[in-house]
Amino acid sequence: MGLGRTASLGVDPAAMLCDAVAMRSSAHVALSALGVAFAACDAAVTDAPPPAPSVTIAPAEVCADGPTVFGIDVSKWQGTIDWRQVAADGVKYAIIRISDGPNVLDGKFVANWAGALEHGIPRGSYQFFRQDEDPVVQADIVIDYHQRYGLGELPPVIDVESTDGADSATMVRNIRAWLDRVEAALGVQPIIYTGRYFWNGNVDSTAFSDYPLWHAQYTGAACPNIAAAWSRWTLWQYSSTGTVAGISGGVDMNRFNGTEAELLAMVGEPRCRETPDVAVCDGEGIGTCDDRGRYGVTPCPTGSRCTDGPLCVDVRCEAGGGPDASFCLDDATRADCAGGVLTAGTCAAGARCFDPPGEPAPGCVPARCLGETGLVDGAWCVDSETREVCAGGALTQTPCPSGSRCEAGLCGEVTEPQEPPTPSSGAPLATARHELRGSIRVVEVSGCNGGTSPMTWLAWLGALVVGGTRRWRAKAR
Fold first, then answer.
1. CA–CA dist 401, 410 (Å, integer)
2. CA distances (Å), origin 288, targets 183, 218, 270, 277
3. Are 79 and 86 in contact (CB under 8 A)?
4. Total number of domains constituting the chain
5. What is the DSSP letter of 424?
6. CA–CA distance, 159 with 128 (Å, rounded to integer)
7. How confident is the model at residue 141 (pLDDT cuts 50, 70, 90)?
8. CA 176 – CA 159 distance, rounded (Å)
9. Does this model's pTM top 0.70?
10. Domain span at residue 432?
């Protein structure tokens, strides 16, 4: 790369391109190749000047959002690189050339790609884009290299700094074809490398402003002047004459606009490339990939943890039976879980939460309908005029009819107490047991003697214990 060194300082783009070629040629190219390079430059200088840009020139300076991260970009012109020394010198990423157009493959790419990886330096790739060559063929070279050698930790870059005789409409069409092809195949949004004057004066388009910008401008200023199509830069190539341990001669120096974590998040983890719809428990949250292939973790709410699904489940739901369970949180609180989210409801005064075994859901039950071992079905008198009944955990209270009173849980007519029959002299009294079975009270009498019939005993019991007229079923022994 070399476009931004003079272009963004206001030099005529054609003369700027020749200056870039001359500088790189003088440093790295054999004398036999210089004639070709300068011949190309002579032709470029004789071209008509580019039309005035129709876009509005961006503000004078666009500064970084905050901290920046230092990195380099390299090609075969840096020769054999000692990546161990590069890593030790504080380089945080390296962007490595794949090719110049479709016909000149960079012979150092494979070694540089492997060397940077071996020493833990995050990598990106770039291709010097030729406007007079098929953009799809050029894109397929980038795709093929990454399918063979792996996608880097940073997105691939299209290096846009040469018109190759193309007009603005052609360049826009070619750039779009390359970007669409690479993004569809690799699943990441590429970066566009260019300079302010080149873009404004030649490409002259705002169609790519949603793509990350790698701005080229060699200056000692604190903030660069970027092309009008962008309001922010992602990378800034600020020098071509930097010095880094492990590299002979000058090297391009860059700043990333953000933190190291944000730099790596541009591509994300390999799992996003392999399974774009991945969703997994990751620590205290759920890890997913966004539509740009970037991986991130959404923390679970406080008091929840990630479980299979993945799903953030309230730990109380987990203890109570699962993400969709209902249970008694305590004596006075019913809990309902839906999708791992717990909603608690407090029982009314005088009621307790009861979770019967084998039942689908708990409920708030009046405390008077609960015994030590569970629900109690029965009837009793609240007072002489009011009867209360528990049935299936439901409590009802009804007044006795006029002229009756509540005794032993039943409303009956008021009767005079009766004396029990007297058994024969010396014989034991009969014994009786009675219980309510549904709407029928069953009374069992045993031990009747002395000529006293069971029904006599029943009549007495009915008047004394129950009162009123009821349906009776008697069993005598």
1. 11
2. 19, 39, 12, 7
3. no
4. 3
5. P
6. 5
7. very high
8. 13
9. no
10. 418-477
